[in-house]
Design goal:
single chain; about 70% helix
Length: about 80
């Protein structure tokens, strides 16, 4: 269980970092779209909706895996139970 716990924790943290980076990119994209809308220009900018949804899903999965990895027992007791 120790290996599975560490692997799950590692994947969870990696996914959380990726979600944080995507969230920062989303903030920049949304600010650009807002600036374009205020300037009354008709320029084709992609909608950030899909990226925001992907970021939310990655954050949920990353948080779940991180919590699961932290909640798993780190070491298994190999001594037999006398009862």
């Amino acid at each position: 269980m120790q290996i599975l716990s560490r692997v799950t924790l590692t994947f969870g943290v990696i996914i959380l970092i990726a979600a944080a980076l995507l969230l920062g990119k989303d903030v920049i994209d949304i600010n650009q779209l807002h600036a374009v809308a205020n300037a009354n220009r008709s320029t084709n900018f992609p909608s950030p909706l899909n990226t925001v949804l992907i970021t939310a899903v990655l954050a949920v999965i990353g948080g779940f895996l991180t919590g699961l990895g932290l909640g798993m027992p780190a070491r298994r007791n190999r001594t037999p139970n006398p009862h």
